User: Which sequence fits this backbone?
C-alpha cells in the first residue's frame, strides 16, 4: 500500500490517543505503544491459555483502548447529542441521563418516541452551574408552585421563569405541575 499525501486522524489501539497517520492501517501512535500492546496481548493470551479460556474475542475485548478518544472528539464537535452520547460524556448509565431529563436537570427535545436530542451547550452549562453544588432532594413540601411564588413575592410568572433559568433554580415536575425549590426562591427574592 502506498502512503497517501495527506494525513488522517487515527486512534491508537493501545493508549486511545489520537494521532496523525499517512496510512489507514496504522494502529499505534508510537513504536512504544506497539511494543506495549504486543506484550500485553501475549501476557493475556498466556494467562487465558493457562486458565483454559483462550478465545480471540475475549482477548480483543480486554485490549480495547482505555480512552475512546475518537468517539469523544466526535461528540465534542456535535451540536446535538443523543441520550447515549450524553451518558458516554458523563461516563454514566443511560437511565441516569433519562432521570436527569425527567427531573429537569437537562433540557431535552423529543423528536419522536425513540429520539431525544440534547443541546451540547446545555451540558456545558450544567458543569458551570454545578459549582454551586446544590442537593437535589426536592419534594412538594420544600417547594413552591408558580402561583405560590407569584402570591408571596409579587413577581410575574415570566420573571420567575427567567430568573429560574438564569440562577439555576432547582425544580421538579410532579403530577404535571412544576415545583420550585423554596430555599432557592427565598434566597433569590427575599
Ligand atoms: Zn499510543
Assistant:
Amino acid at each position: 500500500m502506498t502512503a497517501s499525501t495527506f494525513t488522517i486522524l487515527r486512534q491508537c489501539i493501545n493508549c486511545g490517543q489520537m494521532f496523525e497517520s499517512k496510512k489507514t492501517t496504522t494502529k499505534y501512535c508510537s513504536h512504544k505503544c506497539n511494543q506495549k500492546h504486543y506484550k500485553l496481548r501475549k501476557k493475556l493470551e498466556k494467562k487465558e491459555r493457562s486458565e483454559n479460556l483462550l478465545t480471540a474475542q475475549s482477548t480483543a475485548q480486554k485490549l480495547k483502548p482505555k480512552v475512546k478518544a475518537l468517539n469523544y472528539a466526535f461528540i465534542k464537535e456535535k451540536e446535538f447529542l443523543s441520550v447515549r452520547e450524553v451518558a458516554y460524556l458523563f461516563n454514566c448509565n443511560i437511565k441516569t441521563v433519562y432521570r436527569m431529563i425527567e427531573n429537569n436537570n437537562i433540557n431535552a427535545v423529543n423528536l419522536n418516541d425513540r429520539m431525544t436530542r440534547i443541546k451540547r451547550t446545555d451540558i456545558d452549562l450544567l458543569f458551570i452551574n454545578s459549582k454551586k453544588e446544590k442537593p437535589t432532594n426536592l419534594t412538594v413540601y420544600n417547594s413552591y408552585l408558580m402561583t405560590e411564588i407569584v402570591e408571596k413575592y409579587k413577581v410575574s410568572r415570566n420573571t420567575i421563569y427567567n430568573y429560574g433559568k438564569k440562577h439555576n433554580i432547582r425544580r421538579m415536575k410532579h403530577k404535571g405541575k412544576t415545583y420550585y425549590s423554596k430555599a432557592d426562591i427565598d434566597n433569590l427574592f427575599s
About this structure: Residues 12, 14-15, 17, 28-30, 33 surround zinc ion (CB under 6 Å). The domain at 78-132 is CATH 1.10.10 (Arc Repressor Mutant, subunit A). The longest strand covers residues 115-119. The chain has nine helices and eight strands.
